[in-house]
Design goal:
The complex is a heterodimer of chains A (827) and B (177). Chain A contains 21 helices and 30 strands. Chain B folds into two domains: 76 residues, Beta-grasp domain (Ubiquitin-like (UB roll), Roll), CATH 3.10.20; 69 residues, Orthogonal Bundle (DNA polymerase, domain 1). The chains are: A alpha+beta (827), B alpha+beta (177). Bound molecules: FE2/S2 (inorganic) cluster (2 copies).
């Protein structure tokens, strides 16, 4: 049997457990309940310790001088005056830093070299040129003003379409191994099925030149690190708010030129990430480099301009040239053709992982069997791309849904019916899509029905018709989108025919200890970044060990004590940590039953674990509480049966429940993102055609994230993600100027949505089709809001402007853009 | 060696009822004074240029951006920070309302939101949605999508107005002033 033919039963057998559906569906005690969010009390009272709250004795503060030019050679740096300043400890150039600290880790192959401080050449505005350590941040910034840098300007490229033609001095990385003297980082095409024939035979082909603008996660807390270097042991300790510290943190050691056991990364709670702190290795590496040179602990906290111009967390920046969908007259979708140009900016840390991600759900919830997807990634003089909620698949949702709306228009079909007619049906799962990825389960019709009903869709259509008669422009958008969850790392590299580091692991770990008095201490191996890991862990442990949540304490491992954990990202964490916790608690359960059977002089088969104790079934007075069992396990080895051994603790590392390798020749990319969530979003908006302002009248979203662990926290993800999707759709963009300057490098000019720009009330619903492959049937849900809102809002605007002949092909649809569209039509 | 520093001035600021007398440079920000000199790290800095409200504190009862205020400007003033509200075991009704209505996720914007809410409810104990949006409109939250914060503020108003009825639980008003 080939791996990609596996069924849920095969997966279950591999895991040695029955599929979730057949176990305890609907019988959970704690899972699915709104227990109080465990993280809240310390965050609400100002007692949460974020990275900038870390203070070490004799700590110095760093500030960074950044390039004012988009592209230039560094000719000379004069730091002498800065060094003279009272309180300045260290002034370090890129060249000096590179004597000990090597290039940053990258997935690109051949690698695109990047350093924590630029050497020789700067490639975007904001790139670090010199770093200073001083007694306080004020003095460090004073010192920056006394540094003189002589640059020789090079031509800047900031338009991806022009980057295709770049030559000579315009080429950003002329020294890249097998660099073909161009700004094209990577070009590749994936085909499956018979796209050419399907397009030739189709009755209708819709084609759109879509544009997705560059925006970013913009958490309220920037990235920071506090590093110390112990000269005695040669060991670094780095306090940081990076996310993947137990996954890729070891690479920082390689960069610093020390063995991996010579760094310990200590996680701090993060004030939001949305993907932007996934790696963020540059900041930790910089702080560690400075600490080693300065001989004292160093804190570096990005300010907002540092973060926007140079934290490498910008999202996708794409031109579709074009995107096309082929259909039959009756609306049957046949094939999809995509030609996308993506502006990756000055460096290439995740390669085209974003398009790997898009391939996970390239055909959405629809039965489209042929695809032709061509990606061209180029280098420009902008900050490099990183991860932002959706990691590229949110763009694919936008593209597909826009094409379907265009098709409905062309075929004069109802856009809701067109979608419904093409849905994959519940009995067709597991369903393999043309890229090779598998969808585990779903019921798209049920989600659509629930949303239409909650949204009072028919009623709104009537109101819309009435309003139109009064000259008002109300619009309703309907989209049905996927939320792929639980990634396999193959997506980072399978577009590359010759990857350097074709990683395939993406596990998550958990450790559980029951102490002498029966209290649980749970250790997670990935950080808090604004999600609810402590709440999830508390619920799973309470469920499995029948414990009171009050008796469960959750903390976070550093890398010294850490086990393999991949961390939040790709809507994976709840699924994966639940699997890890289930594995750890079941070992503990087993030992507790062994001890209890001995204490109660009963057969294990007759025992049950309920309400914090193990009882003999049918004899409720014969019971022993977890505290007594725990004390026995810790303190009374001689009273236990032979071979049981002291202690009551377990670790478990849970691997992805179902992934496979891509084919050698990439005819099939394998199964890499099979836990498939789904959503339907229906915004109702009104456009003021005089001013171009858009107002929300209503917003309904129904998600299927499989089994819901905590409805309130999931709802928070949906409303928060939707607000970010609204930002993407209507307001946000890093607007690089032709010369590479970035005027939107601050919050006065980069418009984040405020209280006034989003709905003040959402109707949120859930449909639960449990995943047959994950513990408890959970699917991911962390990114969905931002994956559904942009196409839904674009559809609603187009619908509102029906009296005008406009099509929404480009985001953000600012008021200015609305007016331009209307004016163009009027002319 | 040279120096850009300017002669420090002596100031006295009362923070959460405690008096702090310090020598500070005139350019020192109130946010740094609170966080670093006094060590109250509950006040967070999101943008450092006055655009997000994360750093809001109450100065003589009015919210100010502590990242745009110099410590010397607060000489003689009474400052309230998030630490003046409740504690983990004894939360202020506004904190309780945010807790129960999921008015936070990462918690970074939260201190500013709580203090802006306190200012609002002291002026207008029963605000409608528009008044809430108006009062909190210059505070940015990137996590929640705002609707849960609006619900939290409504719930806080109810709790403060009719503490006995809200949630029907025993309620603490400790930390309230
Ligand atoms: S940190 Fe002061 S307003 Fe943003
Ligand atoms: S809770 Fe994270 S920014 Fe508001």
């Amino acid at each position: 049997m080939s791996k990609s033919d596996r069924t849920p039963d095969d997966i279950a057998e591999k895991r040695n457990k029955p599929p979730a559906e057949e176990t305890e569906d609907g019988e959970f005690e704690v899972i699915g309940k709104n227990i109080d969010r465990v993280e809240n009390p310390r965050l609400l009272t100002g007692r949460g310790e974020y990275i900038d709250d870390v203070q070490l004795a004799n700590m110095g503060h760093a500030a960074v001088l950044r390039s004012p030019h988009a592209h230039a050679r560094i000719v000379d740096i004069d730091t002498s005056e800065a060094e003279q300043l009272d309180g300045v400890d260290l002034v370090l150039t890129g060249e000096e830093a590179a004597e000990k600290t090597g290039p940053l880790p990258t997935f690109s192959s051949p690698p695109v070299e990047q350093y924590c401080i630029a050497k020789d050449r700067v490639r975007h505005v904001g790139e670090a040129v010199v770093a200073v350590v001083a007694d306080d941040r004020y003095v460090a910034e004073d010192a920056l003003e006394r540094i003189d840098v002589e640059y020789e300007q090079l031509p800047a490229v900031t338009d991806a379409r022009e980057a295709l033609e770049s030559e000579g001095e315009e080429v950003l990385h002329p020294d890249r191994e097998d660099g073909h003297d161009s700004n094209v980082y990577l070009q590749n095409t994936f085909t499956a099925g018979d796209p050419d024939d399907e397009f030739a035979d189709a009755d209708v082909v819709v084609s759109r030149e879509l544009r997705w603008p560059r925006s970013g996660g913009q958490p309220m807390e920037t990235v920071g690190a506090v590093a110390e270097y112990d000269e005695g042991t040669g060991k670094f300790t780095i306090h940081a708010n990076t996310s993947m510290y137990n996954y890729m943190g070891w690479l920082i050691a390689t960069t610093l030129g020390v063995s991996t056991n010579k760094i310990n990364i200590v996680p701090k709670i993060a004030g939001g990430s949305f993907g932007s702190k996934l790696f963020a290795h540059k900041v930790s590496t910089l702080a560690a480099t400075l600490a080693r040179e300065a001989g004292r602990p160093v804190k570096f906290i990005e300010d907002r301009v540092d973060n926007i111009t140079s934290c490498d967390n910008h999202g996708s920046d794409r031109y579709y040239r074009p995107a096309e969908l082929a259909l039959d007259e009756d609306g049957t979708m046949r094939a999809l053709r995509i030609d996308v140009l993506d502006d990756y900016g000055a460096y290439f840390q995740f390669e085209v992982g974003h398009h790997g991600n898009a391939m996970a759900q390239v055909t959405g919830p629809y039965t489209i069997e042929s695809i032709d997807y061509s990606v061209t990634a180029v280098a420009t003089n902008k900050s490099q791309q990183g991860a932002y909620r959706g990691f590229g698949s949110e763009v694919q949702n936008f593209v597909l849904e826009r094409l379907i709306d265009a098709a409905a228009d062309e075929l004069e079909m109802d856009p809701v019916e067109l979608r419904r007619e093409n849905f994959i049906q519940p009995e067709e799962f597991p369903y393999k899509i043309p890229s090779g990825n598998m969808y585990d389960s779903g019921d798209y019709e049920a989600v659509l029905e629930e949303t239409l009903e909650l949204a009072n869709y028919e009623e709104w259509r009537e109101k819309q018709a009435d309003a139109r008669e009064d000259g008002r422009h109300i619009g309703i958008g309907v989209v049905t989108c996927q939320e792929r969850s639980v990634f396999s790392s193959t997506e980072f590299w399978f577009w590359n025919d010759d990857p350097d580091f074709p990683i395939t692991s993406s596990p998550e770990s958990a450790s559980v200890k029951i102490d002498e008095t029966g209290q649980a201490i749970v250790t997670l191996h990935s950080p808090f970044w604004g999600n609810s890991p402590e709440t999830v862990a508390t619920q799973i442990v309470a469920e499995e060990l029948a414990m009171d949540p009050e008796n469960i304490e959750v903390n976070y491992a550093d890398t010294d004590s850490g086990l393999k954990g991949t961390g939040p990202g790709g809507s994976r964490y709840t699924v994966m940590v639940s699997g890890a916790l289930e594995g750890a608690t079941s070992q503990i359960q087993e030992k507790m039953f062994t001890i209890a059977a001995d204490m109660l002089e009963a057969a294990q088969e007759d025992l049950e674990l309920e309400e914090g104790e193990i009882r003999v079934r049918g004899a409720p007075d014969k019971s022993v509480g977890i505290p007594e069992i725990a004390m026995q396990a810790h303190a009374f080895e001689l009273d236990m049966p032979d071979g049981v051994g002291s202690g009551l603790a377990a670790d478990h590392t849970y691997d992805h429940p179902y992934t496979t390798m891509p084919d050698e020749d990439r005819e099939d990319m394998g199964v890499f993102y099979p836990i498939m969530g789904h959503m339907c979003h229906i915004p109702v908006i009104e456009v003021d055609v005089e001013t171009g302002k858009i107002e929300f009248l209503d917003y309904t979203a129904v998600h299927d994230c499989g089994t819901v662990v905590n409805p309130e926290t999931l709802k928070g993800h949906i409303t928060g993600g939707t607000a970010q999707g609204i930002g993407t759709a209507l307001y946000e963009e890093y607007q690089y100027q032709p010369d590479g300057q970035l005027p939107t490098d601050n919050y006065h000019d980069y418009p984040l949505p405020t209280f006034h720009d989003v709905p003040d009330d959402y109707t949120i619903g859930h449909v639960e089709t449990p995943s047959p492959w994950t513990e408890y049937g959970i699917k991911g849900g962390g990114e969905g809001g931002r994956m559904g809102a942009p196409p839904a809002i674009a559809a609603a605007i187009e619908d509102a402007l029906e009296p005008y002949d406009v099509s929404i092909d480009e985001l953000p649809v600012t008021p200015k853009r609305v007016r331009e569209l209307i004016r163009t039509d009027e002319e | 060696m040279t120096s850009d520093t300017i002669e420090p001035e002596s100031i006295t600021i009362t923070i959460n009822g405690e008096e702090y007398e310090r020598e500070v440079e005139p350019r020192r920000l109130l946010s740094d004074f609170i966080r670093e000199d006094v060590g109250l790290t509950g006040t967070h800095v999101g943008c450092e240029h006055g655009a997000c409200g994360t750093c809001n504190v109450l100065m003589d009862g009015q919210t100010v951006r502590s990242c745009l205020t110099f410590a010397v400007q607060a000489d003689g003033a009474e400052i309230e920070t998030v630490e003046s509200l409740g504690t983990v075991d004894d939360m202020h009704p506004i904190q309780e309302a945010f807790h129960e209505n999921h008015g936070l996720q990462c918690g970074f914007c939260t201190p500013g939101m709580l203090l802006s809410t306190k200012e609002l409810l002291e002026e207008n104990p029963d605000p409608d949605r528009e008044a809430i949006k108006e009062a909190l409109g210059a505070n940015v939250c990137r996590c929640t999508g705002y609707a849960p914060i609006i619900e939290s503020v409504e719930a806080a108003a109810e709790r403060i107005q009719a503490p006995a009825e809200a949630e029907g639980e025993e309620l603490s008003t400790a930390g309230d002033d």
